[in-house]
Amino acid sequence: MEDIILAPGRYKDLYKSVSLSEKIQGLHQMIQQDFPYIHRVAVALFDTKMNTLKTFVQSAKEDRPFQFYECLMENAPSLMEIKTRKTNRVVNDMAVFNNGTHEHTQKIAANGYQASYSAPLFDETTFIGMLFFNAYQKNVFKTLDLAKLDLYAQLINSLVVNKLQATQMLVGAFRSCLSLVSYKDPETGNHLERMARYTRLIARELAKQGHPGLTDETIEHLFMFAPLHDIGKIGIPDRILRKPGRLDEEEWQIMQTHSTKGREIIDTIAGYLGVATFDQLSLLRNISGSHHETIDGKGYPNQLKKAEIPIETQIVSVADIFDALTSHRSYKPAWSNEAAFKELMQLSGTKLNPDCVRVLIENSAAVKEIQNRFSDDLRDHGR
User: Fold this and answer.
1) Which PANTHER family match (predicted)?
2) For residues 126, 161, 111 and 52, what is the CA-based torsion angle, rounded to 10 degrees?
3) What is the pTM of this model?
């Protein structure tokens, strides 16, 4: 009999450098070995500034009742109670919500789920979201099973926290660098907050309309990375970045290098942080490196055209330009939303992706809500 046995490890795939969605899908397969009745595992994140729950990752590939979706916490009183009490909840017969009027309740019922197990997710004492296990059968969550299921819930909690902490560390490092740019090239206080939310709004609406490559997880990272698009300006001399007048040809050529410098800075810092293989890092590289490309091929630095430009970059470009137009600057007043939308339409199809422009304009009420929540003191509020 051997004294030393090498065991493959049931959870070894969780250590691979893959997306959180892939890890949740793999973990779901393991969970089904113990609980074959669990047909869906899903995580929703909490946005503290908007007080909303937003879809993030889920294991189901076919039945996805919640995708590209968010709801106000006050519109989900049962989930609010779980958050407040910091306790898990079992519903063995979803019929108790048959008279519910909230959209999330109706979506679950419409998809045929009959039972659910919900757990709040925390990073130490900070509430970060919700975890859901859903089943198509009633009365499947037995008391004796809950202790083991709670261990899976804790494992998923750790995976989510690790993912968010890694992303926040990365974003924090880059935003620290970006703060140096703000000293050299000041912008209105909430510009980055607004353009990040315009980015998420555009991406979510495109995803709802079936645009390939946009998942909830990708959209969340796009939201976090969008404010870093101009990080390459760190490498631009102050005499150019802060020049009050028009740049001459030589200065303009130097200014255009900030896109390439941005990618170089990202790769350098990611290497120092040991996250060069971070699965969503390509999003950040694309946003920084090609946000000045235009679909007519006359942008910079590589004169990319149409589909050659990553969709995440095209989304960020529209969000950034819109907020720049509607923000007060020392050299111009804030434009009205109507005037900015008209300008975007002029650029649509030549410089900007027409679908990105269209969905932003179609969601003008959501745009106004973002502006009201993240307004600047110097902004023109007469929209």
Assistant:
1) CYCLIC DI-GMP PHOSPHODIESTERASE TM_0186 (PTHR45228:SF1), CYCLIC DI-GMP PHOSPHODIESTERASE TM_0186-RELATED (PTHR45228)
2) 40
3) 0.87
